[in-house]
TrEMBL record:
It holds the Pfam family SIS. Keywords: DNA-binding, Transcription, Transcription regulation. CDD domains: SIS_RpiR. Residues 132-274 form the SIS domain. It comes from Thalassospira xiamenensis. Residues 5-81 form the HTH rpiR-type domain. This is Transcriptional regulator.
């Protein structure tokens, strides 16, 4: 994937210097690389909502001479992927409408979620997640922010992380304390930010504030050029595509669960002891409802 990787990195590094129209095209290409491999240039331009001339100018800006040269690099990327993934990419684009609407929709949702999860655990993303864990493990405090539909993923991590570490801070703005919860954030900490387009202002502002305080940011988001991913030390880019009217956050939750699992696996005996203490505390507060043991009917 050498040529494809070089082009992708070039799009990311030059993104801030591109015109607004070329940024739209670049973002679509970064977020939907299969479109380059499987569509014509005009079809790609329509999907990105830009004129074909914008795609031509973008290619020239990153040093690509022809559309065929550009497309070949993305088609080679598809060939390098597992056959089942390439097949799914084509099948999703060419699927015919099913007369059984509800069954077809549910099947489409399942296929989309499975494909999204598959991308999360691809080799490159696994390396990124392991790198993110290194930053988390070294941090003095671990701040987590995710607003709106991204909140469940942020809460999932914060709750599970607090079972074995006491340095986690969920930035949820409870009682209007959003800014207060970021007080003291600095270079020795890390901020995990979760979000997807349209981005919640509070999340973007939290990331901007963390950057000003020289705090490393781990971005769990839908694009390498998302506003919360700029200058992030780790970019955990997930797909939120869904046949539904609303984007999916299943992959964001999966990433957060994976980070927790990696941290526990690396934590040794100390982590096991902390989890045991947490369980004792939950038991002391009678946190969970216990179902009565089933009784055997004397006539059975």
């Amino acid at each position: 994937m050498g040529v494809y990787t070089d082009l992708r990195e070039k799009l990311i590094s030059d993104y801030a210097t591109l015109s607004p129209q070329m940024q739209k095209a670049a973002r679509h290409i970064l977020d939907h690389p299969n479109d380059v491999a499987l569509r014509s240039m005009r079809a790609l331009a329509r999907a990105a909502n830009v004129p074909p001339s914008t795609v031509t100018r973008l290619m020239a800006a990153i040093g690509v001479d022809t559309w065929q040269q550009f497309r070949d690099s993305y088609q080679n990327r598809l060939l390098d992927l597992p056959a089942s993934y390439a097949h799914r990419a084509r099948a999703l684009q060419n699927s015919d409408a099913d007369i059984h609407r509800d069954a077809h929709l549910l099947q489409s949702i399942a296929q989309a979620e499975i494909a999204n999860i598959g991308q999360v655990f691809a080799p490159e993303m696994c390396e990124r997640m392991k790198d993110a864990c290194e930053h988390i493990a070294r941090a003095r405090q671990v701040f987590v922010v995710g607003r709106g539909a991204a909140y469940p993923a942020a809460y999932q991590f914060a709750y599970a992380y607090r079972l074995f570490n006491e340095n986690g801070v969920l930035v949820d703005g409870h009682a209007g304390a959003f800014g207060d919860q970021l007080r003291g954030i600095g270079p020795r900490d890390v901020l995990i930010a979760v979000g997807a387009r349209p981005y919640i202002r509070d999340t973007v502002r939290a990331v901007a504030f963390a950057r000003k305080q020289h705090c490393p940011v781990i971005a769990v988001c839908d694009s390498d050029v998302a506003p919360i991913a700029v200058d992030a030390v780790a970019k955990l880019v997930v797909s939120d595509s869904s046949p539904s009217f609303f984007q999916s956050f299943t992959t964001s939750v999966s990433v957060m669960q994976a980070l927790v699992a990696l941290l526990v696996a690396r934590g040794g005996q100390k982590v096991l002891q902390r989890i045991a203490v947490a369980e004792e505390q939950l038991a002391a507060f009678d946190t969970y409802h216990e179902e009565a043991a089933p009784t055997r009917n004397s006539r059975s």
